[in-house]
Amino acid sequence: MMMARERGKTFAGFKQSRYASGEYFEQYLQGDWQPKTDTVRALFARSGITLPGREMWARLRDEVMRYGIYNQNLQAVPPTGSISYINHATSSIHPIVSKIEIRKEGKTGRVYYPAPFMTNENLDMYQDAYEIGPEKIIDTYAEATRHVDQGLSLTLFFPDTATTRDINKAQIYAWRKGIKTLYYIRLRQLALEGTEIEGCVSCAL
């Protein structure tokens, strides 16, 4: 909105968009998007993050309807695989892949990445993506998709005992939940030769 205001220009087709009519903002004006539990409220407070309330959304709606938006697409969530390890975070909005993930990095050899913020005291509270299963991960992405106008990098995780039927069921479930795209399907093999992770280990399916 600020770029549109400064430059006096909006993206092509803005006048026919849900932004121009204000319709896009209705979900934020009618729904309650504040944290529902004390635990989540504490997480936001500790991180110094303040979520906008209805008044802020109403003000933004009015300014967008008045000045427009410069860019048509505003957000996408990339995979951020290797970068996430450096930043002590998980990739995309996935749960952890493993409590301690082992990767082989070029000449460095084996590199061990413990899950973010994991300690001996909270170790038992961690579940990895394979333990959580595809449906709960899809449910999380479906909620986030409502707020993302492009796409989110979504990988599905299965044990190596999964069949093509299991994978197809998850793909259909994702489609029914409104997921825009699936990125990779990863299989956890109980016995791997070496420790290399070369991307999509399920491409042989």
TrEMBL record:
SUPFAM superfamilies named among the record's database cross-references: PFL-like glycyl radical enzymes
Residues in coiled coil: none
Biological process, per Gene Ontology: deoxyribonucleotide biosynthetic process
Domain Ribonucleotide reductase large subunit: 57-79
GO molecular function: ATP binding; ribonucleoside-diphosphate reductase activity, thioredoxin disulfide as acceptor
Cellular component, GO, one term: ribonucleoside-diphosphate reductase complex
Protein family (similarity comment): Belongs to the ribonucleoside diphosphate reductase large chain family.
PANTHER family xrefs: RIBONUCLEOSIDE-DIPHOSPHATE REDUCTASE 2 SUBUNIT ALPHA, RIBONUCLEOSIDE-DIPHOSPHATE REDUCTASE LARGE CHAIN
Protein name as it appears in the record: Ribonucleoside-diphosphate reductase 2 subunit alpha
Species of the source: Citrobacter koseri
